[in-house]
Amino acid sequence: MHQNFVAGRWIGGTEAQDNVNPSNTGDIVGAYARASREDTLEAIAAARAAFPAWSRSGIQQRHDILLKVSAEILARKDELGRLLAREEGKTLPEAIGEVMRAGQIFDFFAGEVLRLSGDKLPSTRPGIEVEVTREPVGVVGIITPWNFPIAIPAWKIAPALAYGNCVVFKPADLVPGSAWALADIIVRAGVPDGVFNLVMGRGSVVGAAMLDDPRIDAITFTGSVGTGRKVAEASVGHLRKFQLEMGGKNPLVVLDDADLGVAVECAVNGAFFSTGQRCTASSRLVVTEGIHDRFVAALTERLKGLVVDDALKAGTHVGPVVDQSQLDQDLSYIDIGRKEGARLAWGGELLNRETPGFYLQPALFTETSAGMRINREEIFGPVASVMRVKDYEEALAAANDTPFGLSSGICTTSLKHASHFRRNSEAGMVMVNLPTAGVDYHVPFGGRKGSSYGPREQGRYAAEFYTTVKTAYTLP
Ligand code: NAD
């Protein structure tokens, strides 16, 4: 059984969870220990105890550890990619890409350790010196979702350690394999005991214990809006710093003057790759009437050519849905869409493949309207809907008409409309002639409105969450 790592030791659990391959439910990836409430409290205590020394550790030590983690992840990208594809169901090339992303993130933050700096300023009072520096926050609780089993943990753990914090990491119950492999790499890279702790298990047990505990100074969370609210409520109660990355209902606007080929590729990639299970997925395709019919026809043709199959098979474009409950949610939204009067232009059928898995044909709805539930609620599967609009102004209004605000996109050859959209889209990330999903790792990531709360993640902006600012006045 794969164990949890608490206070510098691998520890067993009384309960284990089977990690099931969604491409082949007969294939068990492995057994993973579920941490108890007591294990979680021990991990928090260990992180607290390790914090004074780690927060004052030298930057060379932290740099070397992060670089070592990066090097091992990159060296093992094919093997770790296979593990990720097997447990989560994204295709092997997507999974290897995600593993490489994790390695690159550790490399980036290894560099950031050496670039830590502050400001020295003159005071408004003559003779006094002012110094502004960043210090670690303390013990950081990290809670992650199942859809990016290694990249999201990496983009939280790497900056947490880089800036001198101790970590209690709780991965998603559904995909502990990649998280465990990452933890094993971090442990062997030489983090001192207690600095990094892995507590796999249920949100209602491990996650809840973390939320309740005042010894956690900051919580970074990625997941659903419902759980995000619980993190927020508990954290406000403790006056603790928190950061939330949650759902999306991201629009891709296609204007009459768009390059049709570019628009179709953006839609296919953004809406259906990674089985549509991305917070940045383009679930709403907002299309002006002059190109609407050509766009729908070309997109439907393209969808007919997509191969939905085992994530590990060469040639698969779209892997399975992650599990039965997500599949049930996708199917229920397809049913809701039909009942709301949307036209199912393609897909939405369950598919049989060589092995038993959660295979769903990508579904495209047309003739949908803004008020429909399929256009307002996050489905989180390979389901997208086309909304027909009159012109750019109507498209922009429709794009912004959502409680979410993570990413948005526009396909157009008009500089005027592209520039106007960049400025007026109510999203944290805006793409022009690019899919709404797919981002760089050295620049900020995050959204607005109901999608995100708190400082941005990734790149140099990560320092905002993982450090606290100190202003010192000295009369020499
Ligand atoms: P989820 O909210 O069910 O779970 C996320 C994490 O929270 C898991 O580790 C889970 O075990 C834990 N958790 C559950 N209940 C808890 C509780 N009571 N207390 C503490 N922790 C608890 O989300 P999910 O289904 O794993 O992920 C899918 C969601 O994540 C989607 O809504 C998606 O949009 C979102 N997501 C957002 C981003 C982003 O950056 N905005 C990125 C990826 C995924």
Task: Map the helices and strands.
Layout lengths: L3 E3 L2 E3 L3 E7 L2 E11 L2 H19 L3 H17 L1 H12 L3 H23 L4 E4 L6 E8 L2 E5 L7 H12 L3 E5 L5 H13 L7 E3 L4 H10 L5 E5 L2 H13 L3 E5 L4 E5 L5 H13 L9 E7 H16 L19 H16 L3 E4 L16 E6 L4 H4 L6 E7 L2 H9 L3 E2 L1 E5 L3 H10 L4 E4 L15 E2 L2 E2 L9 H4 E8 L2
Parallel strand pairs: 7-8, 7-10, 8-9, 10-11, 12-13, 12-18, 13-16, 15-16, 18-19
Antiparallel strand pairs: 1-2, 3-4, 5-6, 6-22, 11-21, 14-15, 17-20
Helix pairs in contact: 1-7, 2-4, 3-4, 3-6, 4-5, 9-10
Nicotinamide-adenine-dinucleotide binds next to helix 7 and helix 8.
Written overview of the protein:
The chain has 476 residues and is of the alpha/beta class. It folds into two domains: 4-246 and 451-474, Aldehyde Dehydrogenase, Chain A, domain 1; 251-432, Aldehyde Dehydrogenase, Chain A, domain 2 (3-Layer(aba) Sandwich). It contains 15 helices and 22 strands. It has helices at 37-55, 59-75, 77-88, 92-114, 151-162, 176-188, 203-212, 225-237, 260-272, 289-304, 324-339, 373-376, 392-400, 415-424, 463-466, and strands spanning 4-6, 9-11, 15-21, 24-34, 119-122, 129-136, 139-143, 166-170, 196-198, 218-222, 241-245, 250-254, 282-288, 343-346, 363-368, 383-389, 404-405, 407-411, 429-432, 448-449, 452-453, 467-474. The strands form six sheets. It has a seven-stranded mixed beta sheet, with helices on both faces. Helix 5 links the parallel strand 7 (139-143) and strand 8 (166-170). Helix 4 (92-114) runs parallel beside helix 5. The longest helix is centred in the N-terminal third of the chain and has 23 residues, at 92-114. The chain is globular and about 70 Å long. The protein starts with a strand and ends with a strand. The mean pLDDT is 97. The protein binds nicotinamide-adenine-dinucleotide.
